[in-house]
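Whether sequence alone determines local backbone shape is best considered at the level of individual chains. The sequence in question and its structure tokens are set out directly beneath this paragraph.

===
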Amino acid sequence: MHSATMEVFAPTIEKTGQWIDDVMAETGWDSRRAYSALRAVLHVLRDRLTHGEAVDLGAQLPMLVRGLYYEGWQPAKQPLKYRHKADFLERFSEHYPGLEEDQRDLAVRAVFKLLARHVTGGEIEHIKNQLPAEIRELWKTAL
């Protein structure tokens, strides 16, 4: 890769690596599993939010994370309406199959904790206000 290209992308590569490291530290998983968890949680969260709120969250993500966040987004099909934590975790399973329920719960909480550290408090409150009470419960250990 050209050195000028690396210079342009180095900050977002570094920041994305830090985000994955944070998920690894919370879950004890390797980088591939942490990346998959980050991607899956962001997709499920994005698809549950209104378009405006999904875009507001996306604006606060590092550039590479923002790219994976928007990957495959079909705004005409969102927001999805469901009310239960089990539904949120089931949607997570569709994006990251093969995990036990406790692992899904761990992954969601780890990513929510990461978001709580890196996204403004006001935006986190807007996100939580759009989520049903059972799903908001997943944020409790994140804040």
